[in-house]
Design goal:
By secondary structure, this protein is α/β, with parallel strands linked by helices. The protein folds into three domains: 83 residues, SRP54, nucleotide-binding domain (Four Helix Bundle (Hemerythrin (Met), subunit A)), CATH 1.20.120; 185 residues, P-loop containing nucleotide triphosphate hydrolases (Rossmann fold, 3-Layer(aba) Sandwich), CATH 3.40.50; 140 residues, Signal recognition particle, SRP54 subunit, M-domain (434 Repressor (Amino-terminal Domain)), CATH 1.10.260.30. Helix content is 56%, strand content 9%. The protein contains 21 helices and eight strands. It has an eight-stranded mixed sheet with strand order 3-2-4-1-5-6-7-8, sandwiched between helices. Strand 6, helix 11 and strand 7 form a beta-alpha-beta unit. Helix 3 packs antiparallel against helix 5. The longest helix is centred in the C-terminal third of the chain and has 25 residues. The protein is flat and about 75 Å long.
């Protein structure tokens, strides 16, 4: 999980700080020394760490903070603010042409995930009401054109290609005519990469840039490569001039040093981050939300956005009605489980809740358990899913056999389901103004 190691260390530091009540200058400096080590271990550029600690120290060591009623909280607030500034301050959005088509040029080294990311970005823009076209301009890497066509096909995005015998510049220019004829208002150009930066690669990219004058040049870098990603970004920006960065595989980088360094080194913003394999796992980068995640404050806004993308509004209203009337069934339960799974890994989703980051670090969430639940419910008859009260001993044995799960798991699921229904009934009663003590039976 992104920033997991850094997040754990910072939360431990601040937990100690808050536990002290009154703070003096020595306490703050000792805490910031630990913050400095945590950032360096996270592979953040040394010069950036030094400047970051200096900024925090300057603001944290003063009467206004140390004499406040909550000095620990004040220091955390300062670190949070500085982290946001470090990553760019605010979200940096794509620039679109006043007269379509908007041209987005994707650049980067081989292996960073440029072709897949091009497809994900196209899918992301289509959700925003755009009509994107992917242009296959990588004529060198074997099967690169085919890969883009497969990626485009999986997201139902059209791909413009002229084979590998036509020069990339000619393909790019032809894609503009094609886009205009077919009412595509965004062209995403998948350019060639190399194993390393060379003059031939840069010459080709400069030629395309000079002729097409793209609204956006987006550099795709692999977060897993740490400071190498920062060095690549610096080189591309110096040679070509980029408008923004897409950082892939951030979900697999537990350190996160590249994400914390690249803005300060290049002066260019991170616009998107890749947090998984699915199209929806390409997320717009919000420095404030990421800073909150790192410090264990959660990311409720991103959680709400994910829910809005994956949950059907009409179904949600119907479910609310069933909850009020105590008509919630195993079919409803299964439907909600499948909706939650669309939002991404469960540990990642729970980590977006405030205060859950540290709490989740020792919790082993096995995604297979959700499949076992689905198997058990799917092995029930329609009547059993509608009315769990009829599930007696023989029925439980049949369900266990049909799902391939132990009968103990079947019993546990039924009990948890009944407990959840009781809790929903209590919520409903409270919303109607009925008095009563709220119980959470499954937490006992």
């Amino acid at each position: 999980m992104a920033f997991e190691s850094l997040s754990d260390k910072l939360q431990d530091v601040f937990k100690k700080l808050k536990g002290k009540g009154k703070l003096n200058e020595k306490d703050v400096k000792e805490a910031l020394r630990e913050v400095k080590l945590a950032l360096l271990e996270a592979d953040v550029n040394f010069k950036i760490v030094k400047q970051f600690i200096n900024n925090v120290t300057e603001k944290a060591i003063g009467n206004e903070v140390l004499q406040s009623l909550t000095p620990g909280q004040q220091v955390i607030k300062i670190v949070h603010s500085e982290l946001i500034d470090l990553m760019g301050g605010s979200q940096s959005r794509l620039t679109f042409a006043s007269k379509p088509p908007t041209i987005i040029m994707m650049v980067g080294l081989q292996g960073a995930g440029k072709t897949t990311t091009s497809g994900k970005l196209a899918g992301n823009l289509r959700k925003q009401g755009k009509r994107p076209l992917l242009a296959a301009c990588d004529i060198y890497r074997p099967a690169a054109i085919k890969q883009l066509q497969v990626v485009g096909g999986s997201y139902s995005i059209p791909v413009f290609a002229l084979g590998d015998k036509v020069k990339p510049l000619e393909i790019a220019k032809a894609s503009i005519s094609h886009a205009k004829e077919n009412n595509n208002d965004v062209i995403i150009i998948d350019t060639a990469g190399r194993l390393h930066i060379d003059q031939e690669l840069m010459g080709e990219l400069k030629e395309i840039k000079g002729e097409l004058k793209p609204q956006e040049i987006l550099l795709v870098v692999d977060a897993m490569t740490g400071q190498d990603a920062v060095n690549v970004a610096e080189a591309f920006n110096t040679e070509l001039g980029i408008d923004g960065i897409i950082m892939t595989k951030l979900d697999g980088d537990t350190r996160g040093g590249a994400a914390l360094s690249v803005r300060q080194v290049t002066g260019k913003p991170i616009k998107y981050v890749g947090m998984g394999e699915k199209m929806e796992d390409l997320e717009a980068f919000h420095p404030d939300r990421m800073a909150s995640r790192i410090l264990g404050m959660g990311d409720v806004l991103s959680l709400i956005e994910k829910a809005q993308e994956n949950f059907d509004e009409a179904q949600a209203r119907e479910l609310e009605k069933k909850m009020r009337n105590n008509e919630f069934t195993f079919d409803d339960f299964l439907n909600q489980l499948q909706q939650v799974k669309k939002m991404g890994p469960l540990k990642s989703i729970l980590g977006m809740l405030p205060g859950m980051g540290n709490a989740m670090q020792d919790v082993d969430i096995n995604e297979k358990d959700l499949l076992h639940v689905e198997a058990i419910i799917s092995s029930m008859t329609k009547k059993e899913r509608s009315n769990s009260n009829i599930i007696n001993g023989p029925r439980k044995k049949r369900i266990a056999k049909g799902s391939g799960r132990p009968i103990q798991e079947v019993n546990r699921l039924i009990k948890q389901f009944e407990d959840m229904k009781k809790m929903m009934k209590q919520f409903s009663d409270m919303s109607k103004g009925k008095k009563g003590k709220m119980n959470f039976p499954f937490l006992r």
